[in-house]
Design brief:
Layout lengths: L1 H23 L5 H12 L1 E3 L22 E4 L4 E8 L1 E2 L11 E2 L2 E4 L12 E5 L2 E4 L5 H5 L5 E3 L21 E3 L6 E3 L12 E3 L4 E3 L14 E3 L6 E3 L12 E3 L4 E4 L13 E3 L4 E2 L5 H5 L5 E3 L6 E3 L9 E6 L4 E3 L11 E6 L6 E3 L4 H4 L11 E3 L8
The structure holds 2-acetamido-2-deoxy-beta-D-glucopyranose.
2-acetamido-2-deoxy-beta-D-glucopyranose (NAG) binds next to β22.
Length: about 375
């Protein structure tokens, strides 16, 4: 009895080993393949043929599916990246950047790729519909979510805050409306937040200062209202802050200038009032400061130093009074200076940073003279 079942056991053992070996080769799971094919079915792209390699019954991991990569240890799809403005050799064989158009919507099937760490569907211009809300609950490994340059509408899922590994959230250049969910402030790994050029309303979440890893916060060209939360000043890694072209009111947070790595600050075209914090102009790393088209008042703090280096210093179209600060003439570099359309008065200081500037930089003030405006009488 025992001897007759031995060959059968061996056969079973071999079958098991063979199955394990093929799993090692990380062929894609049937579930992932089905999910990808459902995603494909909801989208259409003709010009570049990005989906031509996605075949029924094919191996989505080892089979050269364009834009799909798997984790070799799990054999599960980890990365789905399709860019409509691609410079890679596959999509742009002639070395010219390829420009594609994709329409359709992002299927909920994406939420079945539950080991996904990167989801990029960028610059396809015509992808519409909403952001599947199941993303937040079903894709706990998601690190990068980039859907810019489409026609995505609806709101940012309110549960977005559950994506605790998220480092990049880029939804720029879409038609997204509603408020920025408060839960965004719990994304403790978030480094890059880009929601530029959408239709977002309401306030910037007050708790944004708790995103301690945040280095770029780009929220310009929306319809955000209320004040700039004071807590942005506690973002110690913040390098780029763009809140331009919204409907923000109130003052510039006093401690914003203390952010040590702040490189660019765009607050233009809002309704910001109050004074320019001296700490901001004293900040050595700040290379771009644009406060144009607001209601900023008072004198420009006279705190520039030999380490001040401004590619852009645009304070035009405000209610600034007093003189052009003397210390600005000691700045290491001022590339583009615009102080026009304010209420400044007095003589423009002489010095190298001013040598290349023309009258337009100082036009329409109360009583400026000297430099490119001609002699003071
Ligand atoms: C400053 O911002 C305003 C409003 O966003 C914009 O119109 C202007 O061109 C910017 N200035 C510079 C020098 O980029």
């Amino acid at each position: 009895m025992a001897s007759s079942s031995a060959p059968l056991l061996l056969l079973l053992l071999f079958a098991t080993l063979a199955a394990l070996a093929s799993a090692d080769a990380a062929a894609c799971s049937a579930g992932d393949r089905d999910a990808l094919l459902s995603i494909r079915a909801a989208l259409s792209e003709a010009r570049l043929g990005v989906f031509s390699s996605w075949k029924q019954g094919g191996d989505c991991c080892g089979g050269g599916w364009y834009g799909v990569s798997c984790d070799p240890s799990t054999g599960r799809v980890a990365d789905l990246t399709l860019r409509g403005e691609a410079e890679d050799a596959v999509m742009a064989p002639a070395g010219r950047p390829a420009s594609g158009v994709m329409s359709g919507y992002i299927s909920d099937a994406v939420c079945r790729l539950d080991r996904l760490s990167t989801l990029v569907l960028a610059d396809w211009k015509q992808i519409s519909g909403g952001i599947p809300s199941c993303l937040a609950s079903d894709l706990p490994y998601l690190r990068i979510l980039e859907l810019p340059g489409n026609r995505i509408s609806g709101e940012i899922p309110s549960s977005i805050g559950t994506l605790s590994r998220l480092t990049v959230l880029n939804l720029a250049d879409n038609l997204i409306s509603g408020e920025i969910p408060n839960s965004i402030t719990t994304l403790s790994s978030l480094k890059h937040l880009d929601l530029t050029n959408n239709q977002l309303t309401g306030r910037i979440p007050a708790g944004i200062g708790s995103l301690s890893m945040l280095s770029r916060a780009l929220l310009g060209r929306n319809k955000l209202s209320g004040e700039i939360p004071a807590s942005v000043g506690s973002l110690t890694r913040l390098a780029d802050l763009d809140l331009a072209e919204n409907q923000l009111i109130g003052g510039i947070p006093e401690n914003l200038g203390d952010a040590h790595v702040l490189t660019s600050l765009y607050l233009g075209s809002n309704r910001i009032s109050g004074r320019i914090p001296a700490s901001l102009l004293r900040n050595k790393g700040l290379g771009i400061l644009n406060l144009s088209r607001n209601a900023v008042e008072g004198a420009i703090p006279d705190v520039f130093t030999g380490e001040s280096y401004f590619m852009v210093l645009d304070l035009s179209r405000n209610r600034l009074t007093g003189a052009v600060p003397r210390s600005l003439s000691s700045a290491a570099y001022v590339g583009h200076l615009d102080l026009s359309h304010n209420r400044l008065c007095g003589s423009i200081p002489a010095g190298p940073p001013f040598d290349h500037l023309d009258a337009a930089s100082f036009a329409s003030n109360s009583c400026l003279c000297g430099g490119p405006l001609g002699k003071c009488t």
